[in-house]
Protein backbone atom coordinates (compact mmCIF):
# COMPACT_ATOMS: atom_id res chain seq x y z
CA UNK A 1 0.00 0.00 0.00
CA UNK A 2 1.38 3.39 -1.02
CA UNK A 3 -1.54 5.75 -0.56
CA UNK A 4 -5.03 5.86 0.96
CA UNK A 5 -7.70 8.20 -0.44
CA UNK A 6 -10.27 9.82 1.86
CA UNK A 7 -13.23 11.79 0.47
CA UNK A 8 -15.00 13.87 3.14
CA UNK A 9 -17.69 15.07 2.84
CA UNK A 10 -18.19 11.94 0.81
CA UNK A 11 -19.69 11.66 -2.66
CA UNK A 12 -22.22 10.05 -2.89
CA UNK A 13 -23.25 9.42 0.74
CA UNK A 14 -22.72 12.94 2.11
CA UNK A 15 -21.03 11.61 5.25
CA UNK A 16 -18.37 13.66 7.07
CA UNK A 17 -15.60 11.93 9.01
CA UNK A 18 -15.28 13.07 12.62
CA UNK A 19 -12.00 14.05 14.27
CA UNK A 20 -12.15 10.85 16.34
CA UNK A 21 -12.50 8.74 13.19
CA UNK A 22 -9.58 10.56 11.54
CA UNK A 23 -7.41 10.09 14.64
CA UNK A 24 -8.22 6.35 14.53
CA UNK A 25 -7.30 6.26 10.83
CA UNK A 26 -4.00 7.99 11.58
CA UNK A 27 -3.15 5.29 14.12
CA UNK A 28 -3.89 2.57 11.57
CA UNK A 29 -1.76 4.28 8.91
CA UNK A 30 1.17 4.83 11.30
CA UNK A 31 1.08 1.20 12.45
CA UNK A 32 0.83 -0.07 8.87
CA UNK A 33 3.69 2.20 7.75
CA UNK A 34 5.93 0.82 10.50
CA UNK A 35 4.92 -2.74 9.69
CA UNK A 36 5.61 -2.61 5.92
CA UNK A 37 8.68 -0.37 6.19
CA UNK A 38 7.63 2.69 4.20
CA UNK A 39 5.42 5.70 4.72
CA UNK A 40 1.80 5.36 3.57
CA UNK A 41 0.52 8.64 2.20
CA UNK A 42 -3.01 9.95 2.59
CA UNK A 43 -4.75 11.89 -0.19
CA UNK A 44 -7.63 13.96 1.17
CA UNK A 45 -10.17 14.74 -1.54
CA UNK A 46 -11.96 17.85 -0.21
CA UNK A 47 -14.00 19.55 -2.98
CA UNK A 48 -17.16 19.53 -0.82
CA UNK A 49 -15.66 20.68 2.49
CA UNK A 50 -17.51 24.03 2.40
CA UNK A 51 -20.82 22.38 1.46
CA UNK A 52 -22.02 21.22 4.88
CA UNK A 53 -25.46 21.14 6.49
CA UNK A 54 -26.58 21.96 10.03
CA UNK A 55 -23.26 23.64 10.94
CA UNK A 56 -21.58 20.24 11.17
CA UNK A 57 -17.88 20.87 11.85
CA UNK A 58 -15.26 19.80 9.34
CA UNK A 59 -11.78 18.51 10.11
CA UNK A 60 -9.27 17.86 7.37
CA UNK A 61 -7.39 14.56 7.66
CA UNK A 62 -4.24 16.68 7.51
CA UNK A 63 -4.97 17.74 11.10
CA UNK A 64 -4.67 14.13 12.24
CA UNK A 65 -2.05 12.72 9.86
CA UNK A 66 0.92 14.89 8.79
CA UNK A 67 1.68 12.85 5.65
CA UNK A 68 -1.45 14.16 3.92
CA UNK A 69 -1.88 15.72 0.49
CA UNK A 70 -5.03 17.79 -0.03
CA UNK A 71 -6.76 18.23 -3.36
CA UNK A 72 -9.43 20.88 -3.65
CA UNK A 73 -11.63 22.14 -6.46
CA UNK A 74 -13.63 25.38 -6.52
CA UNK A 75 -15.88 23.86 -9.17
CA UNK A 76 -18.23 22.28 -6.60
CA UNK A 77 -18.73 25.22 -4.27
CA UNK A 78 -19.18 27.53 -7.27
CA UNK A 79 -21.45 25.04 -9.09
CA UNK A 80 -19.07 25.28 -12.04
CA UNK A 81 -17.56 21.78 -12.35
CA UNK A 82 -16.28 22.48 -15.86
CA UNK A 83 -13.96 25.22 -14.57
CA UNK A 84 -10.61 23.64 -13.77
CA UNK A 85 -9.72 25.76 -10.75
CA UNK A 86 -8.28 24.15 -7.66
CA UNK A 87 -5.07 23.09 -6.02
CA UNK A 88 -3.03 20.27 -4.57
CA UNK A 89 -1.50 21.13 -1.20
CA UNK A 90 0.81 19.41 1.26
CA UNK A 91 0.16 19.52 4.98
CA UNK A 92 2.29 22.27 6.59
CA UNK A 93 3.09 19.80 9.37
CA UNK A 94 4.49 17.23 6.94
CA UNK A 95 7.98 16.33 8.20
CA UNK A 96 11.16 15.78 6.21
CA UNK A 97 9.69 15.99 2.72
CA UNK A 98 11.20 17.60 -0.38
CA UNK A 99 8.19 19.68 -1.39
CA UNK A 100 9.91 20.99 -4.48
CA UNK A 101 10.21 17.40 -5.69
CA UNK A 102 6.44 17.13 -5.45
CA UNK A 103 5.98 20.25 -7.57
CA UNK A 104 8.49 18.97 -10.11
CA UNK A 105 6.58 15.67 -10.33
CA UNK A 106 3.13 17.19 -10.77
CA UNK A 107 3.98 19.93 -13.28
CA UNK A 108 4.58 17.55 -16.24
CA UNK A 109 1.25 15.85 -15.48
CA UNK A 110 -0.58 19.16 -15.67
CA UNK A 111 1.24 20.09 -18.87
CA UNK A 112 0.38 16.74 -20.43
CA UNK A 113 -3.29 17.15 -19.48
CA UNK A 114 -3.78 20.66 -20.85
CA UNK A 115 -7.50 20.66 -20.05
CA UNK A 116 -6.56 20.89 -16.36
CA UNK A 117 -5.62 24.53 -16.85
CA UNK A 118 -8.28 27.15 -15.96
CA UNK A 119 -9.15 29.69 -18.61
CA UNK A 120 -7.89 33.27 -18.36
CA UNK A 121 -11.09 34.62 -16.77
CA UNK A 122 -10.96 32.06 -13.97
CA UNK A 123 -7.27 32.74 -13.38
CA UNK A 124 -8.03 36.42 -12.85
CA UNK A 125 -10.90 35.48 -10.52
CA UNK A 126 -8.79 33.27 -8.23
CA UNK A 127 -8.20 35.94 -5.51
CA UNK A 128 -11.96 36.35 -5.04
CA UNK A 129 -12.97 32.69 -5.07
CA UNK A 130 -12.65 32.10 -1.32
CA UNK A 131 -15.35 34.68 -0.65
CA UNK A 132 -17.87 33.03 -3.01
CA UNK A 133 -20.07 30.11 -2.02
CA UNK A 134 -23.40 28.50 -2.79
CA UNK A 135 -26.46 29.41 -0.71
CA UNK A 136 -26.50 26.76 2.02
CA UNK A 137 -29.85 27.99 3.36
CA UNK A 138 -31.42 27.22 -0.02
CA UNK A 139 -29.64 23.87 -0.29
CA UNK A 140 -30.69 22.90 3.21
CA UNK A 141 -34.31 23.58 2.24
CA UNK A 142 -33.92 21.43 -0.88
CA UNK A 143 -32.32 18.59 1.10
CA UNK A 144 -34.99 18.66 3.78
CA UNK A 145 -37.85 18.76 1.28
CA UNK A 146 -36.51 15.89 -0.82
CA UNK A 147 -35.32 13.77 2.11
CA UNK A 148 -38.52 14.11 4.13
CA UNK A 149 -40.77 13.38 1.14
CA UNK A 150 -38.83 10.30 0.06
CA UNK A 151 -38.60 8.90 3.57
CA UNK A 152 -42.34 9.36 3.99
CA UNK A 153 -42.86 7.51 0.70
CA UNK A 154 -40.85 4.56 2.02
CA UNK A 155 -37.44 5.09 0.44
CA UNK A 156 -34.25 4.11 2.27
CA UNK A 157 -32.37 7.40 2.04
CA UNK A 158 -29.19 8.63 3.75
CA UNK A 159 -29.55 12.11 5.24
CA UNK A 160 -26.43 13.91 3.97
CA UNK A 161 -24.20 15.91 6.30
CA UNK A 162 -22.45 17.54 3.35
CA UNK A 163 -22.26 17.65 -0.49
CA UNK A 164 -25.40 18.30 -2.56
CA UNK A 165 -26.49 14.70 -3.08
CA UNK A 166 -28.99 12.25 -1.66
CA UNK A 167 -28.03 8.58 -1.68
CA UNK A 168 -30.75 5.96 -1.57
CA UNK A 169 -31.58 2.34 -2.13
CA UNK A 170 -33.54 1.78 -5.33
CA UNK A 171 -37.01 0.28 -5.00
CA UNK A 172 -36.70 -3.31 -6.14
CA UNK A 173 -32.95 -3.28 -5.54
CA UNK A 174 -31.90 -2.56 -9.16
CA UNK A 175 -30.52 0.95 -9.46
CA UNK A 176 -29.96 0.80 -13.22
CA UNK A 177 -33.53 -0.33 -13.92
CA UNK A 178 -34.96 2.23 -11.53
CA UNK A 179 -32.95 5.10 -13.03
CA UNK A 180 -34.04 4.06 -16.53
CA UNK A 181 -37.65 3.96 -15.35
CA UNK A 182 -37.38 7.47 -13.91
CA UNK A 183 -35.53 8.85 -16.95
CA UNK A 184 -38.40 7.72 -19.16
CA UNK A 185 -40.57 9.99 -16.99
CA UNK A 186 -38.22 12.95 -17.19
CA UNK A 187 -36.50 12.53 -13.82
CA UNK A 188 -32.78 11.92 -14.24
CA UNK A 189 -30.86 10.15 -11.47
CA UNK A 190 -27.39 8.63 -11.31
CA UNK A 191 -27.32 4.84 -10.94
CA UNK A 192 -25.38 3.47 -8.02
CA UNK A 193 -23.55 1.04 -10.31
CA UNK A 194 -21.23 3.94 -11.15
CA UNK A 195 -20.13 3.78 -7.49
CA UNK A 196 -20.01 -0.05 -7.39
CA UNK A 197 -23.34 -0.10 -5.55
CA UNK A 198 -25.80 -1.30 -8.22
CA UNK A 199 -28.72 -1.44 -5.80
CA UNK A 200 -28.55 2.33 -5.10
CA UNK A 201 -29.13 5.65 -6.85
CA UNK A 202 -28.00 9.24 -6.35
CA UNK A 203 -30.05 12.44 -6.54
CA UNK A 204 -28.47 15.85 -7.13
CA UNK A 205 -29.90 18.79 -5.21
CA UNK A 206 -28.62 21.32 -7.74
CA UNK A 207 -32.04 21.49 -9.38
CA UNK A 208 -34.29 24.38 -8.39
CA UNK A 209 -37.00 23.92 -5.79
CA UNK A 210 -39.55 24.25 -8.59
CA UNK A 211 -37.96 21.32 -10.41
CA UNK A 212 -37.79 19.30 -7.20
CA UNK A 213 -41.51 19.84 -6.62
CA UNK A 214 -42.24 18.61 -10.14
CA UNK A 215 -40.08 15.52 -9.69
CA UNK A 216 -41.29 14.49 -6.24
CA UNK A 217 -44.75 13.16 -7.25
CA UNK A 218 -43.12 10.90 -9.85
CA UNK A 219 -40.54 9.66 -7.34
CA UNK A 220 -43.26 9.03 -4.75
CA UNK A 221 -45.31 7.09 -7.31
CA UNK A 222 -42.24 4.99 -8.13
CA UNK A 223 -41.63 3.96 -4.51
CA UNK A 224 -43.14 0.54 -5.24
CA UNK A 225 -41.14 0.02 -8.46
CA UNK A 226 -39.96 -3.56 -8.88
CA UNK A 227 -42.20 -4.97 -6.18
List the main descriptive attributes of the protein structure presented here.
227 residues; alpha/beta; Aspartate Aminotransferase, domain 2; four-stranded antiparallel sheet; globular
Strand order of the largest sheet: 1-2-3-4
CATH fold descriptor of the largest domain: Aspartate Aminotransferase, domain 2
Average pLDDT taken over every residue: 92
Number of helices: 7
The coarse overall form would be globular
Report the count of strand segments.
8
**Which blocks of ≥5 consecutive residues have pLDDT under 50?**
none
What would CATH call the homologous superfamily of the largest domain? Type I PLP-dependent aspartate aminotransferase-like (Major domain)
Query: For the terminal residues, how far apart are their CA atoms?
Result: 43 Å
Strand content: 15-25%
Radius of gyration: 20 Å
What is the element layout, followed by pairings?
Blueprint: E1 3-7, H1 19-36, E2 41-45, E3 68-73, H2 74-77, E4 86-90, H3 99-112, H4 120-125, H5 136-153, E5 156-158, E6 165-169, H6 175-183, E7 190-191, E8 200-204, H7 209-221
Parallel strand pairs: 1-2, 2-3
Antiparallel strand pairs: 3-4, 5-6, 6-8, 7-8
Helix pairs in contact: 5-7
Q: Could you please describe the fold and organization of this structure?
A:
The chain is of the alpha/beta class and 227 residues long. It has two domains: 129 residues, Type I PLP-dependent aspartate aminotransferase-like (Major domain) (Aspartate Aminotransferase, domain 2); 89 residues, Aspartate Aminotransferase, domain 1. The strands form two sheets. The chain has a four-stranded mixed β-sheet with strand order 1-2-3-4. Strands 5-6-8-7 form a four-stranded antiparallel β-sheet. The mean pLDDT is 92.
